[in-house]
Amino acid sequence: MRMTVLGSGTNVHPTRAAAGYLVETDQLLLFDFGPRTLMNLIKAGADRHRVRHLFITHHHTDHFADFLPFFFDAVFHAKFVAPRPGLTIYGPRGTRRLFGTLVKAVPGFAQAPFPLTITEMRDGTIRIGRTRVTAGTVVHSPSLHCQGYRVEHNGAVFAYSGDAEYCAGLVELCQGADVAVLDCSFPVQRPGAGHMHAGDCGRVAREAGAKRLILSHFYPVAERYDVKAQAGRTFDGRITLARDRMRITLPSRAAPRSR
To answer: Which of 64, 69, 153, 216 could form a disulfide with 242 if both were Cys (CB 3.0 to 4.6 A apart)?
Structure first.
């Protein structure tokens, strides 16, 4: 399994794209699609026309806005360059209504010459090829159903919080993960509602028994402090600060782990 960070910042971060992560197993999986992540997907050398599975954590636009240029490009390419496979969008409650409305409202989208499927995931696990993807509810916005995700392939485990506060659901998703990418929006000194600070991230990683913690989703204020050291006060495993287009290979094992 390989993971590429497409965006490690927030909506208006001056140097980082917003949230987006590409996970390569026997499938090509995209988790969130925030502003400026499409260009990083291209710069990373991934074939965007092979992306068939897009997972959205919640419906704030900093986590899905680049779907619009991506889908426009996909429709154009499929009509005038070469066919592409169908696309499935997965997400929490409300995803079918939101993306169904977008496809109907944006000119040309409804005439896409490839199948589009929109699937709302409840807490639980689906299998795509030889890959298992688990969705779990996390706490972020009281007006939205928000999910994190867990990917398992050949014994390797990747977990992604989306936007989240510390909560039991997030700890469960991250259990034993080889890599846990967590929402480190703020430093301990400047906490904010709906997100974790660095200390919360360390707590989740420690309680989940994660092997490696990737701090991401930085607001600019987080970069004025040593958030890596702050997370390390509660988590003694490996800690890395995410950066755009960072690639990480997760170890495979003889047999997949079950939850």
So the answer is: 216
Mean pLDDT across 100-123: 95
Check residue 259 and give its pLDDT. Answer: 45
Out of 3.40.50.2300, 3.30.200.20, 3.60.15.10, 3.40.50.1100, which CATH number does the structure's domain 2-245 have? 3.60.15.10
Give 105: exposed, middle or buried? Use CB within 10 Å, 0-12, 13-18, 19+: exposed
Residues 169-205 have pLDDT tens digits of: 999 999 999 999 999 999 999 999 999 999 999 999 9
Averaged over 244-251, what is the pLDDT? 95
Q: How far apart are CA 100 and CA 120, in angstroms?
A: 12
- Name which of 42, 199, 214, 29 is nearest 129 in CA terms: 29
Which CA distances in Å does 208 have to 61, 113, 170?
29, 43, 9
